Amino acid sequence: MTKYGVIVGSIRKNSYSKGVADALVAGLPEDSEVTYIDIASLPLYNQDYDADSPAEYTRFRNEVAAQDAFIFVTPEHNRSISAALKNALDVASRPWGQSVWAGKPALVASQSISGISGVLAHHILRQSLVFLDMPTMQQPELYIGNTDKLSDEEGHITNEGTKNFLADSAKKFSEFAKKFI
């Protein structure tokens, strides 16, 4: 059984990113253990906390450490990843030399209501994952555009073609992740 951590970069209620994450999770093997890890409650990373971390940092780092692989879904905020997602990456990579991300395989998906599909956020996130030593599945690339037209008012993906594409991509990711676990 593989433990998959899911990090949704949007903390908005009924977010399209959460809908994309749900559609990906639907394609994972039945014996998968899936944990959506909350990033909304993390205080902003501050190096002053390295010696005495807030309880939320410790909770988050422990949850990240317990996973075998990660699915990241990011919205695009001002041509980058969300502040909440960047903060989560920073919190679990510190103190220096104690990153709990290293070696864990990752899948990156981006989404946007625009036609450019969060492509810049996608690549910015990939760049961070390279530094964090997370092997990242290269293909298929998951740029999901026009999510407002592919989803219902609660953010769930309703377009069957998109749902099938995401589920199939998660199946491929499960095979990719096995190489590193």
UniProtKB/TrEMBL annotation:
GO terms for molecular function: FMN binding; oxidoreductase activity. Residues 3-146 form the NADPH-dependent FMN reductase-like domain. Pfam families: FMN_red. GO terms for cellular component: cytosol. InterPro entries: Flavoprotein-like_sf, FMN_Rdtase-like_dom, NAD(P)H-dep_reductase. It comes from the Bacteria. This is Oxidoreductase. It comes from Liquorilactobacillus uvarum DSM 19971. The lineage of its organism: Bacteria, Bacillati, Bacillota, Bacilli, Lactobacillales.
